[in-house]
Protein backbone atom coordinates (compact mmCIF):
# COMPACT_ATOMS: atom_id res chain seq x y z
CA UNK A 1 0.00 0.00 0.00
CA UNK A 2 1.22 3.46 -0.85
CA UNK A 3 1.83 5.92 1.93
CA UNK A 4 -0.62 8.82 2.05
CA UNK A 5 0.49 11.68 4.29
CA UNK A 6 -3.10 12.92 4.55
CA UNK A 7 -4.49 9.63 5.86
CA UNK A 8 -4.22 10.67 9.50
CA UNK A 9 -4.73 14.38 8.89
CA UNK A 10 -7.53 15.81 11.03
CA UNK A 11 -10.51 17.43 9.39
CA UNK A 12 -9.85 21.19 9.12
CA UNK A 13 -13.20 22.08 10.73
CA UNK A 14 -14.42 19.16 12.82
CA UNK A 15 -12.89 18.63 16.24
CA UNK A 16 -15.88 16.97 17.92
CA UNK A 17 -18.32 14.26 16.71
CA UNK A 18 -21.11 16.80 16.42
CA UNK A 19 -22.94 18.37 13.47
CA UNK A 20 -25.67 21.00 13.36
CA UNK A 21 -28.72 20.89 11.12
CA UNK A 22 -29.35 24.25 9.47
CA UNK A 23 -32.93 25.51 9.96
CA UNK A 24 -34.72 22.12 10.09
CA UNK A 25 -38.49 22.48 9.61
CA UNK A 26 -40.85 21.35 12.36
CA UNK A 27 -42.21 18.54 10.20
CA UNK A 28 -38.83 16.77 10.21
CA UNK A 29 -38.86 14.54 13.27
CA UNK A 30 -35.98 12.72 14.94
CA UNK A 31 -36.99 9.33 13.51
CA UNK A 32 -36.75 10.84 10.01
CA UNK A 33 -33.20 11.90 10.78
CA UNK A 34 -32.24 8.54 12.27
CA UNK A 35 -33.31 6.85 9.05
CA UNK A 36 -31.48 9.40 6.89
CA UNK A 37 -28.27 9.28 8.94
CA UNK A 38 -28.03 5.56 9.72
CA UNK A 39 -25.63 5.01 6.80
CA UNK A 40 -23.07 7.01 8.81
CA UNK A 41 -23.44 5.09 12.05
CA UNK A 42 -25.44 5.48 15.21
CA UNK A 43 -26.54 9.00 16.10
CA UNK A 44 -28.02 10.55 19.22
CA UNK A 45 -29.90 13.78 19.60
CA UNK A 46 -28.27 16.76 21.24
CA UNK A 47 -31.59 18.58 21.29
CA UNK A 48 -32.89 21.70 19.58
CA UNK A 49 -31.24 25.01 20.29
CA UNK A 50 -31.53 28.60 19.09
CA UNK A 51 -28.65 29.68 16.90
CA UNK A 52 -25.99 31.68 18.72
CA UNK A 53 -26.53 35.36 18.01
CA UNK A 54 -29.59 34.58 15.85
CA UNK A 55 -32.51 33.88 18.23
CA UNK A 56 -35.05 33.61 15.40
CA UNK A 57 -33.27 30.59 13.93
CA UNK A 58 -33.17 27.03 15.24
CA UNK A 59 -30.75 24.17 14.89
CA UNK A 60 -30.85 20.51 15.86
CA UNK A 61 -27.66 18.96 17.21
CA UNK A 62 -26.68 15.52 15.88
CA UNK A 63 -24.06 13.58 17.83
CA UNK A 64 -22.02 10.75 16.27
CA UNK A 65 -19.96 7.95 17.74
CA UNK A 66 -16.71 9.45 16.39
CA UNK A 67 -15.33 12.43 14.51
CA UNK A 68 -14.73 10.10 11.55
CA UNK A 69 -18.46 9.32 11.28
CA UNK A 70 -19.38 12.99 11.64
CA UNK A 71 -16.91 13.78 8.86
CA UNK A 72 -18.47 11.04 6.73
CA UNK A 73 -21.93 12.52 7.20
CA UNK A 74 -20.72 16.02 6.38
CA UNK A 75 -19.15 14.79 3.13
CA UNK A 76 -21.87 12.39 1.97
CA UNK A 77 -25.22 13.63 3.31
CA UNK A 78 -24.94 17.33 2.54
CA UNK A 79 -27.72 18.21 0.11
CA UNK A 80 -29.48 14.85 0.28
CA UNK A 81 -33.26 14.74 0.57
CA UNK A 82 -35.18 13.64 3.67
CA UNK A 83 -38.34 11.93 2.44
CA UNK A 84 -41.52 10.77 4.21
CA UNK A 85 -41.63 13.97 6.23
CA UNK A 86 -44.33 15.82 4.33
CA UNK A 87 -42.70 17.97 1.70
CA UNK A 88 -39.14 16.75 0.91
CA UNK A 89 -36.43 18.61 2.78
CA UNK A 90 -32.82 19.04 1.68
CA UNK A 91 -30.27 18.37 4.40
CA UNK A 92 -27.94 21.27 5.17
CA UNK A 93 -25.23 20.54 7.75
CA UNK A 94 -22.77 22.76 9.55
CA UNK A 95 -19.80 22.11 11.80
CA UNK A 96 -20.56 25.23 13.83
CA UNK A 97 -23.28 26.21 16.33
CA UNK A 98 -23.47 29.52 14.43
CA UNK A 99 -24.27 27.52 11.26
CA UNK A 100 -21.27 28.63 9.24
CA UNK A 101 -20.97 26.93 5.82
CA UNK A 102 -18.70 23.87 5.96
CA UNK A 103 -16.69 24.88 2.91
CA UNK A 104 -12.98 25.54 2.32
CA UNK A 105 -11.97 29.21 2.05
CA UNK A 106 -9.92 28.48 -1.07
CA UNK A 107 -11.70 25.88 -3.18
CA UNK A 108 -9.82 23.59 -5.54
CA UNK A 109 -11.22 21.77 -8.55
CA UNK A 110 -13.31 18.66 -7.84
CA UNK A 111 -12.45 15.36 -9.52
CA UNK A 112 -14.59 12.75 -11.22
CA UNK A 113 -13.98 9.04 -11.71
CA UNK A 114 -13.23 8.17 -15.33
CA UNK A 115 -12.97 4.51 -16.29
CA UNK A 116 -9.96 3.63 -18.39
CA UNK A 117 -11.84 1.08 -20.51
CA UNK A 118 -14.43 3.46 -21.93
CA UNK A 119 -12.78 6.84 -21.44
CA UNK A 120 -16.02 8.16 -19.92
CA UNK A 121 -17.41 8.47 -16.38
CA UNK A 122 -18.47 5.16 -14.96
CA UNK A 123 -18.81 3.10 -11.80
CA UNK A 124 -15.76 1.79 -10.01
CA UNK A 125 -17.68 -1.46 -9.78
CA UNK A 126 -20.84 -2.66 -8.07
CA UNK A 127 -23.19 -0.32 -6.29
CA UNK A 128 -20.98 1.22 -3.64
CA UNK A 129 -22.66 3.71 -1.35
CA UNK A 130 -21.28 7.24 -0.93
CA UNK A 131 -20.19 6.16 2.55
CA UNK A 132 -18.10 3.27 1.15
CA UNK A 133 -16.59 5.61 -1.42
CA UNK A 134 -15.81 8.05 1.39
CA UNK A 135 -13.84 5.36 3.23
CA UNK A 136 -11.82 4.60 0.08
CA UNK A 137 -10.99 8.16 -0.93
CA UNK A 138 -10.55 9.45 2.64
CA UNK A 139 -7.29 7.50 2.79
CA UNK A 140 -5.65 10.30 0.76
CA UNK A 141 -6.89 13.05 3.09
CA UNK A 142 -9.96 14.93 4.43
CA UNK A 143 -12.81 15.28 1.95
CA UNK A 144 -15.18 18.17 1.33
CA UNK A 145 -17.73 15.95 -0.39
CA UNK A 146 -18.35 12.60 -2.08
CA UNK A 147 -21.23 12.42 -4.54
CA UNK A 148 -22.67 9.76 -6.84
CA UNK A 149 -24.70 10.05 -10.04
CA UNK A 150 -23.41 13.50 -10.99
CA UNK A 151 -24.35 14.57 -14.52
CA UNK A 152 -21.10 15.52 -16.24
CA UNK A 153 -22.56 15.71 -19.74
CA UNK A 154 -21.55 12.16 -20.66
CA UNK A 155 -23.90 9.19 -21.22
CA UNK A 156 -22.98 7.79 -17.79
CA UNK A 157 -23.23 9.78 -14.60
CA UNK A 158 -20.12 10.04 -12.45
CA UNK A 159 -18.71 9.75 -8.96
CA UNK A 160 -17.29 13.09 -7.83
CA UNK A 161 -14.88 13.71 -4.94
CA UNK A 162 -13.59 16.98 -3.53
CA UNK A 163 -10.58 17.27 -1.22
CA UNK A 164 -9.71 20.07 1.16
CA UNK A 165 -6.03 19.98 0.25
CA UNK A 166 -4.45 20.32 -3.19
CA UNK A 167 -1.69 17.97 -2.03
CA UNK A 168 -4.18 15.27 -1.10
CA UNK A 169 -6.13 15.66 -4.35
CA UNK A 170 -2.96 15.39 -6.40
CA UNK A 171 -1.78 12.31 -4.54
CA UNK A 172 -5.17 10.62 -4.85
CA UNK A 173 -5.05 11.27 -8.58
CA UNK A 174 -1.60 9.75 -8.99
CA UNK A 175 -2.26 6.65 -6.85
CA UNK A 176 -5.92 5.79 -7.36
CA UNK A 177 -5.71 2.02 -7.05
CA UNK A 178 -3.63 2.30 -3.86
CA UNK A 179 -6.35 4.18 -1.99
CA UNK A 180 -8.04 1.08 -0.61
CA UNK A 181 -7.39 -2.63 -0.85
CA UNK A 182 -10.92 -3.27 -2.14
CA UNK A 183 -10.14 -1.18 -5.24
CA UNK A 184 -7.65 -3.73 -6.53
CA UNK A 185 -10.59 -5.84 -7.69
CA UNK A 186 -12.31 -2.95 -9.45
CA UNK A 187 -11.89 -1.80 -13.06
CA UNK A 188 -8.96 0.57 -13.60
CA UNK A 189 -9.92 4.22 -13.42
CA UNK A 190 -8.44 7.70 -13.24
CA UNK A 191 -9.44 10.89 -11.44
CA UNK A 192 -9.95 13.88 -13.72
CA UNK A 193 -10.19 17.45 -12.52
CA UNK A 194 -12.97 19.70 -13.79
CA UNK A 195 -14.14 23.25 -13.23
CA UNK A 196 -17.64 23.25 -11.74
CA UNK A 197 -18.39 26.81 -12.91
CA UNK A 198 -17.09 26.60 -16.49
CA UNK A 199 -18.48 24.55 -19.34
CA UNK A 200 -17.29 23.36 -22.70
CA UNK A 201 -20.09 23.80 -25.23
CA UNK A 202 -20.31 22.67 -28.85
CA UNK A 203 -22.85 22.40 -31.64
CA UNK A 204 -22.77 19.54 -34.11
CA UNK A 205 -24.82 18.38 -37.06
CA UNK A 206 -25.04 15.11 -38.93
CA UNK A 207 -23.09 15.31 -42.18
CA UNK A 208 -23.92 11.77 -43.27
CA UNK A 209 -25.66 8.82 -41.72
CA UNK A 210 -22.39 7.70 -40.13
CA UNK A 211 -20.50 10.93 -39.34
CA UNK A 212 -21.08 13.99 -37.22
CA UNK A 213 -19.60 17.39 -37.96
CA UNK A 214 -18.62 19.93 -35.33
CA UNK A 215 -19.87 23.37 -36.37
CA UNK A 216 -18.81 25.53 -33.45
CA UNK A 217 -17.57 25.38 -29.90
CA UNK A 218 -16.81 27.65 -27.01
CA UNK A 219 -16.75 28.08 -23.25
CA UNK A 220 -19.33 29.59 -20.95
CA UNK A 221 -18.74 30.60 -17.34
CA UNK A 222 -21.14 31.00 -14.42
CA UNK A 223 -20.91 32.76 -11.10
CA UNK A 224 -22.99 29.96 -9.59
CA UNK A 225 -22.16 26.24 -9.49
CA UNK A 226 -25.90 25.52 -9.44
CA UNK A 227 -26.43 27.46 -12.68
CA UNK A 228 -23.65 25.53 -14.42
CA UNK A 229 -25.16 22.23 -13.25
CA UNK A 230 -28.58 23.32 -14.52
CA UNK A 231 -27.05 24.13 -17.91
CA UNK A 232 -25.54 20.65 -18.20
CA UNK A 233 -28.81 19.07 -17.11
CA UNK A 234 -31.12 21.02 -19.43
CA UNK A 235 -28.99 21.80 -22.50
CA UNK A 236 -26.74 18.78 -23.09
CA UNK A 237 -28.16 16.77 -25.99
CA UNK A 238 -30.77 19.40 -26.80
CA UNK A 239 -31.63 19.85 -30.48
CA UNK A 240 -31.67 23.39 -31.87
CA UNK A 241 -32.66 23.27 -35.50
CA UNK A 242 -30.63 20.44 -37.03
CA UNK A 243 -27.81 20.81 -34.54
CA UNK A 244 -27.23 18.84 -31.36
CA UNK A 245 -25.82 20.66 -28.34
CA UNK A 246 -22.93 19.20 -26.33
CA UNK A 247 -22.51 20.73 -22.87
CA UNK A 248 -19.85 19.35 -20.51
CA UNK A 249 -17.74 20.66 -17.67
CA UNK A 250 -14.45 22.23 -18.66
CA UNK A 251 -11.50 19.94 -17.87
CA UNK A 252 -8.00 21.42 -17.62
CA UNK A 253 -5.58 19.65 -19.96
CA UNK A 254 -2.85 19.25 -17.34
CA UNK A 255 -3.84 16.74 -14.69
CA UNK A 256 -1.92 18.58 -11.97
CA UNK A 257 -3.92 21.80 -12.31
CA UNK A 258 -6.25 22.15 -9.33
CA UNK A 259 -6.87 25.89 -9.30
CA UNK A 260 -8.36 28.05 -11.98
CA UNK A 261 -5.71 29.64 -14.21
CA UNK A 262 -8.30 30.77 -16.74
CA UNK A 263 -9.17 34.19 -15.35
CA UNK A 264 -10.85 35.32 -18.58
CA UNK A 265 -13.27 32.43 -18.13
CA UNK A 266 -13.44 31.88 -14.39
CA UNK A 267 -13.79 35.43 -13.08
CA UNK A 268 -16.25 36.76 -15.65
CA UNK A 269 -19.63 35.36 -16.63
CA UNK A 270 -18.73 35.52 -20.30
CA UNK A 271 -19.31 33.20 -23.22
CA UNK A 272 -16.79 32.89 -26.02
CA UNK A 273 -17.99 31.41 -29.29
CA UNK A 274 -15.81 30.12 -32.07
CA UNK A 275 -16.97 29.22 -35.58
CA UNK A 276 -13.44 28.65 -36.85
CA UNK A 277 -10.44 27.39 -34.86
CA UNK A 278 -8.44 30.52 -35.70
CA UNK A 279 -10.88 33.15 -34.50
CA UNK A 280 -12.42 33.65 -31.08
CA UNK A 281 -14.78 36.47 -30.22
CA UNK A 282 -17.03 37.28 -27.29
CA UNK A 283 -20.64 36.33 -27.91
CA UNK A 284 -22.61 37.08 -24.75
CA UNK A 285 -22.00 38.39 -21.26
CA UNK A 286 -24.40 37.43 -18.49
CA UNK A 287 -24.27 37.07 -14.70
CA UNK A 288 -27.84 35.84 -14.25
CA UNK A 289 -27.35 32.17 -15.07
CA UNK A 290 -27.75 30.07 -18.16
CA UNK A 291 -29.15 31.65 -21.32
CA UNK A 292 -30.98 28.88 -23.23
CA UNK A 293 -30.57 30.43 -26.68
CA UNK A 294 -26.85 31.32 -26.55
CA UNK A 295 -26.13 28.78 -29.27
CA UNK A 296 -28.24 30.59 -31.85
CA UNK A 297 -25.58 33.31 -31.88
CA UNK A 298 -23.08 30.85 -33.34
CA UNK A 299 -25.26 29.54 -36.17
Notes on the protein architecture:
This protein is of the alpha+beta class. 17% of the residues lie in helices and 34% in strands. The protein is built from six helices and 16 strands. The chain has helices at 30-37, 67-76, 130-137, 166-174, 225-235, 263-266, and strands spanning 18-22, 43-51, 54-64, 81-82, 89-90, 93-94, 111-115, 143-150, 158-163, 189-193, 195-206, 212-221, 239-240, 243-250, 270-276, 279-285. A six-stranded antiparallel sheet has the order 13-14-11-12-15-16. Strand 11 (195-206) and strand 12 (212-221) form a beta hairpin. Helix 2 (67-76) crosses helix 3. The longest helix is centred in the C-terminal third of the chain and has 11 residues, at 225-235.
Provide the fold topology.
Elements: E1 18-22, H1 30-37, E2 43-51, E3 54-64, H2 67-76, E4 81-82, E5 89-90, E6 93-94, E7 111-115, H3 130-137, E8 143-150, E9 158-163, H4 166-174, E10 189-193, E11 195-206, E12 212-221, H5 225-235, E13 239-240, E14 243-250, H6 263-266, E15 270-276, E16 279-285
Antiparallel strand pairs: 1-3, 1-6, 2-3, 4-5, 7-9, 7-10, 8-9, 11-12, 11-14, 12-15, 13-14, 15-16
Helix pairs in contact: 2-3
